[in-house]
Specification:
α1 packs parallel to α12 and α5 packs across α7. Helices cover about 35% and strands about 10% of the residues. The relative contact order is 0.14. The protein has two domains: about 100 residues, Rossmann fold, CATH 3.40.50; about 170 residues, Rossmann fold (3-Layer(aba) Sandwich). The chain has a seven-stranded parallel beta sheet with strand order 6-5-4-7-8-9-10, with helices on both faces. Strands 1-2-3 form a three-stranded parallel beta sheet. It is built from twelve helices and ten strands. The chain has about 300 residues and is of the alpha/beta class. The structure holds NADP nicotinamide-adenine-dinucleotide phosphate (NAP). NADP nicotinamide-adenine-dinucleotide phosphate binds next to α5 and α7.
């Protein structure tokens, strides 16, 4: 395990495996990743462990046969290079869906209703009391949300928006979806951006979605609209987002992820209409336990010679 996972997950792993837990919380270095591939039958990597083609190329005849990723997003692993090296890769879809959708709702509400700004006002001792025109935000109920990437998490967000907030749902995805709630597919990303009050990003990271939300998409948004990103930081061209916010081209942004994580641009920190969370998407113990148990189920299946339940 490349990071400490919840105690229950470590205990379950110890029952089956000769377990080594890397006892620090930062991503692995190139040399550590090479050693992991060289010295272990299976590795449980996670976000930030950049298993690039160079890492696989640096290890001749790796002992490692499987990378059982802790997390649904696996854009930090060069899957083609792993497979070429004879190493299978799995992830943890589903276990993260509701928690991440909840985090999206949290950001939507915080951004639209200026919750961060209000909290900072109270903590600074600057609150002089309620009055009718104080900190007026955008009422979320009944507005239109646009989902970029109508997959598991995108659909869970859309459901919350439709059933919980009476919002209209529109989306842009690679393929059209059969859904059991009303949702309008957009002709393209630009027309989606132009039509909605809240634009939520829920696509995977990686080369295909790098800077999908760029200056052009941000310019298409309405000046009152909010951008929410719970997916991966580099889906958004962060410099263009800063410019769009500074110019008032959009109303605000709620971010859980950043292009150069954990670095957050000073310009974003300086703006009151930006809500900044430290990649909290799945941060609840039971969710992290479910993710961990799913990771172990993948390892168990692999070493039993069965198909990986969550192969990528
Ligand atoms: P998913 O079920 O695979 O959904 C991804 C959706 O994005 C799919 O509907 C896919 O379309 C669509 N898509 C992919 N490439 C696209 C493109 N170029 N343009 C438009 N749409 C595209 O994945 P998920 O489980 O919902 O997870 C989504 C991502 O959320 C993960 O990959 C991860 O990076 C991120 N995440 C973040 C956190 C956090 O802590 N903030 C937590 C969990 C996950 P098709 O259905 O047509 O293929």
């Amino acid at each position: 395990m490349t990071r400490p996972l919840p105690e229950s997950v470590q205990a379950a792993a110890r029952a089956t495996y000769d377990l080594t837990v890397r006892d620090i919380t930062t991503p692995m270095s190139h040399d550590e990743m090479c050693a992991a591939l060289r010295d272990y039958d299976g590795v449980v990597p996670t976000l930030g462990d950049m298993f690039s083609a160079e890492v696989f190329a640096a290890v001749d005849a790796p002992m490692c046969q499987v990378l059982a990723n802790f997390g649904v997003g696996y854009n930090h692993i060069d899957v083609a290079a792993a497979k070429a090296a004879g190493i299978a890769v799995s992830n943890t879809p589903g276990a993260v869906t509701d928690a991440t959708a909840d985090t999206a709702m949290c950001l939507m509400l915080m951004s639209a209703r200026r919750a961060g700004e209000g909290e900072r006002m109270v903590r600074a001792g600057d609150w002089t009391g309620w009055h009718p025109t104080q900190l007026l935000g955008m009422h979320l109920s009944g507005k239109t949300v646009g989902i970029i990437g109508m997959g598991r998490i995108g659909q869970a967000i859309a459901r919350r928006c439709h059933f919980g907030f009476g919002m209209s749902v529109a989306y842009h995805s690679r393929s059209r979806k059969e859904l059991d709630f009303p949702a309008q597919p957009a002709a393209d990303l630009l027309s989606l951006a132009a039509a909605v009050d809240v634009l939520v990003i829920a696509v995977p990271g990686g080369a295909e979605t790098h800077h999908l939300v760029n200056a052009e998409v941000l310019a298409a948004m309405q000046p009152h609209a909010h951008l929410i990103n719970i997916a991966r930081g580099n889906v958004v061209e962060e410099a263009a987002l800063v410019t769009a916010l500074q110019r008032g081209q959009i109303g605000g942004a709620g971010l859980d992820v950043y292009e150069f994580e954990p670095t957050v641009p000073d310009a974003l920190i300086a703006m009151e209409n930006v809500t900044l969370l430290p990649h909290l998407g799945t941060a609840a113990l039971e969710v992290r336990e479910d993710m961990g148990m799913m990771t172990l189920a993948n390892l168990d299946a692999f070493f039993a010679g069965d198909p990986l339940p969550n192969a990528v």
